Amino acid sequence: MTSSRPTKTVTTASPCPTRRPRGVGARRLTERRARCCRSATCTDSVRTAPVTTVELTARSSRTRTTGETVSSLSVEVAHDTVAQQEIAHEQEFVDRVYTQLALSTKNAEALAHEGYGRGRLGHEGGLVERDAMVFQAAKRIATLNAAHEGLVFGRLDLDEVTGRGEGPRYIGRIGLRDENRDSLLVDWRAPAAAVFYQATAADPQGVVRRRVLRCVASRVTAVEDDLLDPEADAAGDLPIVGEGALMAQLSRARDRTMHSIVATIQAEQDKAIRAPSKGVVSISGGPGTGKTVVALHRAAYLLYSDRRRYETGGVLVVGPSGVFMRYIERVLPSLGETAVALRSLGEVVDGVRATRHDDPEVADVKGGARMAELMRRLARQAVPDAPAELRMYYRDDWIVLTSGDLSRLRRQLLSQGKRNRQLPRVAATLLDAMWRQVTGERGRERGKEEFVDQMLGTQAFVEFALTWWPVLDAAQVLGWLADPALLGRISEGILSDEERALLSRTWSDDWSVADVALLDELRYLLGDAPERRDDENDPLAHLVDENMPELTTITDREFSRGPAMVRTEDDGYAHVLVDEAQDLTPMQWRMVGRRGRTATWTIVGDPAQSSWPVPAEAAAAREEALGDKARHDFHLSTNYRNSSEIYDFAAAYASRVGLEADLPHAVRSTGIAPEERQVADLRSGVREAVAELADAVAGTVGIVVPVARRAEVQGWLDSWPEHAEAAAGGADARIAVLIGLDTKGLEFDGIVVVQPEEIEHESATGRATLYVVLTRATQRMITLTA
Ligand SMILES: Nc1ncnc2c1ncn2[C@@H]1O[C@H](COP(=O)(O)OP(=O)(O)OP(=O)(O)O)[C@@H](O)[C@H]1O
């Protein structure tokens, strides 16, 4: 372990604000390490590199032989021995925890078994008991199973006052008690675990030593210590080992999924995670500051702290794309939480799954706030294929409802509420208007009641009513816009001719991500149809079922795609978490807002990374979605993703092109600056750069290309035999080709940026997209220009 450490001094970027100078030699170095806190402004713990092997190992093993001359070798041996002893010691405890976990799982299984037994008692109470017991047992088993990996990760040694002789306090992904019901493991979200994240050297809060245990499955592989209060350990009884859990965690190779940071949450992040659940919590910060991962831990925290409310009401997590949702999907289950709906913006509406992106200029039109008015007009239109007038003969009279009459009746019905909710009133409204035209003596004499009876028994009338006012589905209504004449008519004063031309070409294929917000708008404008058409005021109710299928129009059949959407009344959640919030269009804010009318919210974003061209409009829509809920703002200031070399490069770009970026401080240096290469042949340039990065890093490599080159570059990659294995596996491939927008929220160990200028000029917000791309690499980055 020690042999691979660097032996050169790397200067500290800024001194730890909490550091107090102390003695000299090995002891001094121990103190210096120990004084490093988890404050984001403290760069000591992460930037102070080892000074020499002797000093470093002396520091790490805390060999208390002050005054003695020790050789490098002997100190290293001492260090390794101490570290191994500590690991062995922790392993004993971890083994005990896993034994208890197995026992708890067995108990939960026995409870489920007993529950099934109750169900066989043969009375209703037994069945209710069975369901409750089996449900509780299943939940417990799922939690215990999910927590298996890295179950124990933290240990606190407290001072005498705070610890009150309780011994070390161990922190884990879930809480566990031993057979005597004594606490064995404290859930990381419990108040008793908060000091694990919040204690600093300046304010140790009773913590003498904080230890992170690194495990592979149930095996302890390393321990990493912070001595927060050396004075409380004046006798030096607590060994201090390791290089710092945070740096170890940050330097790990990246795979295609995000991991929980439960062992290394930093103090400023912890504040946002544990913020009270009221109102809206906004988490801002530049690239790589942990906004996403913090928000996910917050969701887990909320579920823990108010399980009844959030599990019953539901937690919705909204992210930019399917790729991103797959990237984050393992974080919450690894924290024992599975009851969360993860939806990309194309999947927010139940029953709809859109992945296709429109061209930027089309998406900009579809996302604009003015589309709300367009949808309002659309929802009031006559059904395109419905008959334009009604003609019936009754006794001595021809009754004619002209298209003008029908328009008036449509407006009359719409003035009474949402379109689908009017179904029970349709027949009566038509019949009233028709009855006014019955003037012949025979008709009047027999009265309205007989007229109504006769009409309702007439196939032509029933067919007309059902076709004129069918139950409308949002997908079918949005499909009406494929007709350029209709689009032209209703977009008067809203869209320009150019915009109309752009849009009319887009609704012939499957729904795009931007269409989903329009569908949702229509769902709410149209309203839910009455649950069953058995309303006693609806004279057509008994006729509907047998008539409906035949009366569906051609347009209906063409544009009703996929499974039916769920009713709007089932849309609400108890908590809504929006990631990459800077990218939501006004229409998407309206859609997400409807899910959180009575919810608490967590909103995460960085305006400089926004790909929406009219920020003021999106801000207004966001304010409307959040209403007058109280706001609580948190800001994260440290970049944990990029090496400082890569982030400096990206930050310089942001300043050069005038992005008003929130520039965080990147804490990890690799000594390797990004490379800007000019190449004569792009294909061989990409091949070379990819090979180089694939060799240099252990984890993932992303090739980011302009939209127009995606297929071409993917073709190149597929044809290179040396990368065949790494490029296989679709979303899980180690080497992948992506466009700029698809990189949002993701990260790779190495990034090759192909033709950055083209990416910049791809859309009105291309500079922000390129800034996002430049902030995705953890270790190495090469830009290629041909
Ligand atoms: N306290 C921490 N300990 C270890 N790793 C961390 C910590 N905080 C953040 N990270 C890591 O830093 C990386 C960036 O985190 P994340 O993606 O949440 O940042 P972000 O602010 O959402 O980034 P962006 O806005 O650029 O998409 C992730 O790999 C995450 O696991």
UniProtKB/TrEMBL annotation:
Q: Which GO terms describe its molecular function?
A: 3'-5' DNA helicase activity; ATP binding; DNA binding; hydrolase activity
Limits of the UvrD-like helicase ATP-binding domain: 264-643
Chain positions recorded as ATP binding sites: G285, G286, P287, G288, T289, G290, K291, T292
Annotated region (Disordered), positions in chain: 1-25
- Output the Gene Ontology cellular-component terms: cytosol
Q: Which Pfam families match?
A: AAA_19
Q: Which InterPro entries match?
A: DNA_helicase_UvrD/REP, P-loop_NTPase, UvrD-like_ATP-bd
GO terms of biological process kind: recombinational repair
Q: What is this protein called?
A: AAA family ATPase
Q: Native species of this protein?
A: Nocardioides mesophilus
> Which taxonomic lineage does the organism of this UniProt entry have?
Bacteria, Bacillati, Actinomycetota, Actinomycetes, Propionibacteriales
